[in-house]
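Milestone M4 deliverable, item 7.
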Amino acid sequence: MTSIMPYLLFDGNCLQAMEFYCTCLDGELKVQKVKDSPAKGVMPEQQQEKVVHARLKGTGFEIAASDWLARNQTPVQGNTVCIFLESTGAEELAVLFEKLSQGAEITDPQKQQFFGSYGALNDRFGVRWMFRAGPPAM
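Output delivered:
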């Protein structure tokens, strides 16, 4: 089963933003920083305090987020909110990735990461999509 939720990308203030949303929306917040993840060994020192993944769950809503960690890309208005597709079935997401990639800019080809299979693209309409398959995150 694939779930769809908004995914927010912040420029270094993800923790503060998600804590604020948590107080406003009264949900449960889980946060993992780069330094506390398997990514710590491949990320530079200045990225260690950034959030690699945050998830806010409440009654009737779920929001995922992270700090902008792509060193070769720049956050600009329009690419900091995306649609996040998550599934326990990699095959199901591979089919969706293939369909949505028609005419798209593939920014991250699907491949295995420490947190599961991951891929991302900007579709032909300029909407950013992120795909993750694996066991439920946080």
